Structure prediction request, 242 residues.
Amino acid sequence: MISPDLIIDKCDFLCVHEDAVQEVLSSMPADEKLYDLAELFKVFGDSTRIKILYALFERELCVCDISNLLGLSQTAVSHQLRILKANKLVKSRRSGKIVFYALDDDHVYKIIDCGMEHINE
Amino acid sequence: MISPDLIIDKCDFLCVHEDAVQEVLSSMPADEKLYDLAELFKVFGDSTRIKILYALFERELCVCDISNLLGLSQTAVSHQLRILKANKLVKSRRSGKIVFYALDDDHVYKIIDCGMEHINE
DNA sequence: TTATCATATGAATAGATGTTCATATGTTCA
DNA sequence: TGAACATATGAACATCTATTCATATGATAA
Prediction:
């Protein structure tokens, strides 16, 4: 993946030791995985979406509720819910005119909790 | 925080029930916390930074090593390390010309693991 | 059917962000 | 001291993204 030519005539700490290079590289997930992981965290990296997820911690809510609770426009909420749903973090069910959203994954709690722990240090 | 005027003449599910509104709002951390949390996840929301963190899972590395291992420019890596350090996810120590970076927080593992679990479903 | 309400969607815009380029800082060695 | 190396930093640029506005879809009730 990394040609030896690339890592010559540079700093000589790890670069010239092929086994050390392999040790690090072999433990890395595939590029695609890492990209997907970053994409997932990107979803959590917006305060509007974080607020929506927190609101849904308590109970399922319709779009209108979320808008009113958080003081956001209906359109903005709808756009963000679309992103959350695409990433399987929330699910929806329709009840007449109203669409209810709820958390779709236990990992949401865990991920946010881990982040909070770091924040609260 | 949310005036009653705002939540009148809208959908009448949760909005008109003040106690339900309070139930959701009272469980929400302060806005500032939620903003900080989003900022933290934003740091994880970039594949370059994710790759750097993964590389540091194995061992401490200097900037040059990271550049070579990941096939990134020295400048790009340096900029990203700055962000990671500002968020207390990595720490650095200087040894002569070389600056070594290492993970600074056990939460990094946990957060990334949680994300990976979600990805691998 | 028609009016109204709840939600979704597309386009446009403004703001944020990652990389590159050029260059500065800091360290070692001759 | 000066040259070479490792890293850091600032500015510029291109890309991405969240919100808004306008409008469409879907459902209910009169």
The radius of gyration of chain B is 21 Å. Chain B touches chain A through 60 residues (CB under 8 Å).
